[in-house]
């Protein structure tokens, strides 16, 4: 039987001249990433983002609505097999992010007696802004693959923070993949197919679904709210902040690991919220804890969300508008040598905990140039002093080195690590 040509999800939707023009514009945008980009915007929620470029998509890409994050353990001990998997994953990701199927014969185009190249649940769906971002955990740099001497200093294990109760079964991992999209089925489909391709070489360690982005990564996006009802990530790094991104987000060759130049370090934290207790807390106390008003998101004592907080201003009673232990004060860059993060976390609700309470909270995601100088001091300050700790609990943690982007079809995720 002669196999049919690959079936494109975009073609199944009647993808025509307007879509072709969008893809053409995307290709131009991808080439521009080889210089100092801005990152391209998809023209609508259904359109694709470029896959190839200097930086991986899914970092400064305008944050999508849905997340499927997965951490894998590598089960093969063969370096060549791991490299081959990364090459296969890259080829599949290049297709999936453009609204195509994972393999060349797709879900229905191959021989009937063979397993399909794609699982098929995304047939008929557009690209939905899918991005796939890969990272390498510290455990990958053990003795299995000859990488021990290439572990970046910035990938040092995170310290134990006061009060954290981490579950090791949903922490860490050798390799992570972050799938973000505007359609949850598209994100889940992508992770499912990468896991299928990796069968026998990797196994899923843990995964997390997320909805409702909790940060904006572009000035074109409105600031979203977390499950406590407050606007989150007002002072986040944005893709338009080229100079700040260079200083605070992208790793550079002079940092000590040249293979990471153009990459970034990813910290994940699953933060359980006791929303039932929070919901019984007075509005005044909620606002004092955050240091912002709940409606507009303005710093206390100010009127608008993006007004600069005044940490010295006092009210008529002589008390500080923003208390000394308010979340906004403890996390502010001015308290940490101007260290900044690019956050792109998501809300989660994982059913109930069996005691009549929602298992809900924030899946925190933050990218940075060096976690030792950025995430660690900020989180240590929060862990020690933030009154918000009465209502939250950190239950999982991950740290990954996300390599630079894939330049073209001859490149692959992690090439600079394995071949550099």
UniProtKB/TrEMBL annotation:
<feature type="domain" description="Dyp-type peroxidase C-terminal">
    <location>
        <begin position="223"/>
        <end position="406"/>
    </location>
</feature>
<keyword id="KW-0732">Signal</keyword>
<keyword id="KW-0575">Peroxidase</keyword>
<dbReference type="Pfam" id="PF20628">
    <property type="entry name" value="Dyp_perox_C"/>
</dbReference>
<keyword id="KW-0479">Metal-binding</keyword>
<comment type="similarity">
    <text>Belongs to the DyP-type peroxidase family.</text>
</comment>
<dbReference type="GO" id="GO:0004325">
    <property type="term" value="F:ferrochelatase activity"/>
</dbReference>
<keyword id="KW-0408">Iron</keyword>
<dbReference type="InterPro" id="IPR006311">
    <property type="entry name" value="TAT_signal"/>
</dbReference>
<dbReference type="Pfam" id="PF04261">
    <property type="entry name" value="Dyp_perox_N"/>
</dbReference>
<dbReference type="InterPro" id="IPR048328">
    <property type="entry name" value="Dyp_perox_C"/>
</dbReference>
<dbReference type="GO" id="GO:0020037">
    <property type="term" value="F:heme binding"/>
</dbReference>
<protein>
    <recommendedName>
        <fullName>Deferrochelatase</fullName>
        <ecNumber>1.11.1.-</ecNumber>
    </recommendedName>
</protein>
<keyword id="KW-0456">Lyase</keyword>
<dbReference type="GO" id="GO:0030313">
    <property type="term" value="C:cell envelope"/>
</dbReference>
<feature type="signal peptide">
    <location>
        <begin position="1"/>
        <end position="20"/>
    </location>
</feature>
<dbReference type="InterPro" id="IPR006314">
    <property type="entry name" value="Dyp_peroxidase"/>
</dbReference>
<dbReference type="InterPro" id="IPR019546">
    <property type="entry name" value="TAT_signal_bac_arc"/>
</dbReference>
<keyword id="KW-0349">Heme</keyword>
<dbReference type="InterPro" id="IPR006313">
    <property type="entry name" value="EfeB/EfeN"/>
</dbReference>
<dbReference type="GO" id="GO:0033212">
    <property type="term" value="P:iron import into cell"/>
</dbReference>
<dbReference type="GO" id="GO:0005829">
    <property type="term" value="C:cytosol"/>
</dbReference>
<dbReference type="InterPro" id="IPR048327">
    <property type="entry name" value="Dyp_perox_N"/>
</dbReference>
<feature type="domain" description="Dyp-type peroxidase N-terminal">
    <location>
        <begin position="56"/>
        <end position="211"/>
    </location>
</feature>
<dbReference type="GO" id="GO:0004601">
    <property type="term" value="F:peroxidase activity"/>
</dbReference>
<keyword id="KW-0560">Oxidoreductase</keyword>
<dbReference type="InterPro" id="IPR011008">
    <property type="entry name" value="Dimeric_a/b-barrel"/>
</dbReference>
<comment type="function">
    <text>Involved in the recovery of exogenous heme iron. Extracts iron from heme while preserving the protoporphyrin ring intact.</text>
</comment>
<dbReference type="GO" id="GO:0046872">
    <property type="term" value="F:metal ion binding"/>
</dbReference>
């Amino acid at each position: 039987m002669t196999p049919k040509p690959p079936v494109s999800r975009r073609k199944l939707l009647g993808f025509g001249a307007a879509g072709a023009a969008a893809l053409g514009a995307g290709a131009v945008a991808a080439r521009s990433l080889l210089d100092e980009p801005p990152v391209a915007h998809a023209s609508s929620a259904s359109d694709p983002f470029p896959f190839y470029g200097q930086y991986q998509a899914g970092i400064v890409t305008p944050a999508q609505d849905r997340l499927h994050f997965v951490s894998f353990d590598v089960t093969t001990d063969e370096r060549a097999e791991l490299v081959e998997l990364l090459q296969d994953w890259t080829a599949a990701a290049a297709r999936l992010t453009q609204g195509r199927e994972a393999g060349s014969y797709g879900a229905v185009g191959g021989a009937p007696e063979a397993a399909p190249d794609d699982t098929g649940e995304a047939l008929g769906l557009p690209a939905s802004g899918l991005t796939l971002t890969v990272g390498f955990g510290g455990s990958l740099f053990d003795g299995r693959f000859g990488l021990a001497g290439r572990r970046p200093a910035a990938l040092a294990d995170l310290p134990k923070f006061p009060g954290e109760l981490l579950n090791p079964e949903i922490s860490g991992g050798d390799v992570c993949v972050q799938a973000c999209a505007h359609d949850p089925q598209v994100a889940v489909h992508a992770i499912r197919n990468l896991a299928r391709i990796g069968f026998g070489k990797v196994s899923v360690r843990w995964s997390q679904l997320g909805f409702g982005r909790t940060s904006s990564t572009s000035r074109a996006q409105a600031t979203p709210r977390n499950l406590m009802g407050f606007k989150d990530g007002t002072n986040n790094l944005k893709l338009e902040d080229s100079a700040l991104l260079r200083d605070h987000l992208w790793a550079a060759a002079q940092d000590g690991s040249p293979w990471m130049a153009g990459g970034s370090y990813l910290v994940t934290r699953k933060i359980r919220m006791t929303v039932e207790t929070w919901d019984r807390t007075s509005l005044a106390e909620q606002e004092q804890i955050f240091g912002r008003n709940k409606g507009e998101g303005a710093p206390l004592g100010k009127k608008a969300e993006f007004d600069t907080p005044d940490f010295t201003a006092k009210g008529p009673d002589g008390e500080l508008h923003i208390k000394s232990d308010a979340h906004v004060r403890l996390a502010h860059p001015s308290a940490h040598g101007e260290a900044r993060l690019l956050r792109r976390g998501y809300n989660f609700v994982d059913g109930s905990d069996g005691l009549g309470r929602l298992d809900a909270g924030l899946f925190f995601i933050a990218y940075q140039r060096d976690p030792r100088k950025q995430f660690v001091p900020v989180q240590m300050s929060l862990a020690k002093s933030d009154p918000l700790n009465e209502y939250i609990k950190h239950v999982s943690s991950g740290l990954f080195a996300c390599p630079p982007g894939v330049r073209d079809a001859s490149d692959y995720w992690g090439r600079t690590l394995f071949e550099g």
